[in-house]
Structures are given as C-alpha cells and as structure tokens.
Amino acid sequence: MAVVAALAVGSTGLAETCQTASDMDAATKAALSAAGTKYFDMVAKGDTTGLQQNSIPALASDFSGIGGTVKEQQSALAGSKGTARPPFVLQTDATAARSEFFCGVFGSKGQTADSATFTLSNLPAGKYAVVILDATTAKGPYTVSLVLQQLGSDWKLGGLYIKAGQSAGHDGNWYVTKAKEYQGKGQAHNAWLYYVEARTLISPLPFMSTAVTDKLYDDSQKLQPADLPVDGKTVDLAANGGSFRLTAVFPEVVGSDLDLIVRYQATDVADTNKAYAGNMAVMKALVAKFPELKDAFGGIVARAVDASGRDYGTLMAMKDIK
C-alpha cells in the first residue's frame, strides 16, 4: 500500500549524493530518528491532520491519497511501535528526469550488506531522507517507510509507504523457498511469479534496491516467461476460437488466498454479460495453457479493461475453473 507525493520511479540524473547512517553527524541522525518516530506514531494513531500539517506543501495541498491509506491501515498498526532502520540522506542539486543515489559501499559484485540504491524521477533539487520503520502487529510484521524533505531546520513528510511483511500468511523468504521448489519441478511460470511476490514483500520501497533484492531480481530474470505480459509488453492468449490481449499477470492476496490477477484489453465493459463471458474464457484458457498454476494459486481474478480504464472483474476459485 503506497502513496508518494512529488516522488516517483524513474531514469539518469546529475549531482546526486547519498549518506548512510555511518556518514551522518550525530545531530542529523537524532533529528531523523525523532521525525521517524513522530510520524510513525501519527500513522499508528490515524492522526491524518497532524501528518498533513507536517507535510511538504506539494503533499499537504492534496493529502487525500495518504489520508485514505492511513485510515485503511490504522487497524493493523494501532498500538504498535516502530523500530527504525539506519536512515539514508539523499541530496540533489538539480531536477533531473532520473536521479540515482548509490548509498554505502559497493563491491566488485555490486551491492553489499549495508548498501542501497534509490532511483527517483523528476526529483526537485533539495535534501531528502528515507526512514524505514519495522513494526510487529497483531496482523504480522509491517514496514512504514517515510520519505522526508528538509525545509529549513525541519524534516517534513514528502511520501509514505505502508506495507505488510506477509502475504497469505507467509513472508518473503517463504516465497523464495517455494519459487526454488517450483523451479526444481520445472514449473518456471510459478517460480517466476513467486519470485515477484518475494521481491514485493522484501523490498519496503519500489524505488529502492539492496543486495538481497538485486539477487532475487537476477534469479527471477533467468525464469522470466516470454508468454506472459512483462514490463509493459502484451501477449495474446487464444481462447474460444479468438484471442485476448493480456496486459498484466501478477500475484495478489484476495481474502486469505494468494490469487493470480489477469488483466486484458476489452472494447467495452458496459455489457457485463459479455465481459463476464470474456473473463471466464480468459481464466479457462490460462489454466489450460499453464496447468501448473493450479498448484500455486487459490484462484484467478480476470479483469476486462476498456480504453477508458473502466474494468469488470470476475473471481473464480482454482478448483472451479474447468
């Protein structure tokens, strides 16, 4: 669950520097620790007013996204305490289409245990910090990641990410183990999809990479299927004597199950009977083409999406897809 203001993933930049906790002076570390704890407590209490008042102007002027996310997650985080990881300070002297920050010590094989890379697009010149806090909750582990910007002597909120550390009751390491098991069985599609889920769980931020996530990416790239839509590429799925253009296939928890979400292009979803029939045809054709999916997912959600972005979805338990 993520909301970011004025910060997004993006491509190459200039004049970027990064400080890890070991590079910072004591005053900076103390200020970031205090800000991180303060904002985490506001999130846990559902204090959206306080968060908005302590946000950068660009975020404070349109706070509905973060406000909604905080309210949705408050039941999980209520009463919890955040334990901060070592922070990072990012500084850029000019706005660039792509800014890359290489933090910590890199070895001959790339990242090391304490390093990290951040990739952001259209980041305005300024001084920023990333503070990640871990929390133990009744619903399992969570991370609350704060993107802060220094304005004067204060660290203001510029972005917020809240993520559960488990999916369908399992953490990222469990999904890595299962991915390797599927790979050993020759089920490359299941293995790749489980690596995708593992990386999503292990990385607290979509624009942050570490030695662990880089290794998972490398392992998954070897299995990346050519017959599933990946990185903006579409693929055609034959069904009912015709074909459907798939735009995305990815794992997601629905209820207590890990299901497979399938999105495909549709001319119009206003006719719900036609959309439902299309959804059923896509699910049946997908399972017929990749029967291994029955071993890895509790169900499939097919979503017909028209040119305007409207969609119509259908969920079927895997056991009911014949």
Give me the secondary-structure topology:
Blueprint: E1 2-4, E2 16-20, H1 26-45, H2 48-53, H3 57-60, H4 64-77, E3 83-84, E4 88-92, E5 99-103, E6 106-107, E7 110-111, E8 116-120, E9 126-137, E10 140-151, E11 154-164, E12 166-167, E13 170-171, H5 172-184, H6 188-202, E14 208-209, H7 211-221, E15 235-239, E16 242-254, E17 257-265, H8 272-289, H9 293-296, E18 299-305, E19 311-317
Parallel strand pairs: 17-18
Antiparallel strand pairs: 1-11, 2-4, 3-9, 4-9, 5-8, 6-7, 8-14, 9-10, 10-11, 12-13, 15-16, 16-17, 18-19
Helix pairs in contact: 5-6, 6-7
Which CATH architecture of the largest domain? Roll
- For the residues shown, what is the average pLDDT? 93
Alpha carbon gap, first and last residue: 33 Å
User: Which fold does the CATH topology of the largest domain refer to?
Assistant: Nuclear Transport Factor 2, Chain: A
H and E string: EEHHHHEEEEEEEEEEEHHEHEEEHHEE
Tally of separate helices? 9
Radius of gyration: 21 Å
Biggest sheet features: 7 strands, antiparallel
> What oligomeric assembly is this protein in?
single chain
In terms of DSSP E residues, the strand content is: 25-35%
Number of strand segments: 19
The portion of residues assigned to helices is 25-40%
Low-confidence stretches: 1-14
Class from secondary-structure proportions: alpha+beta
Overall morphology? globular
Count of discrete domains = 3
CATH class of the largest domain: Alpha Beta
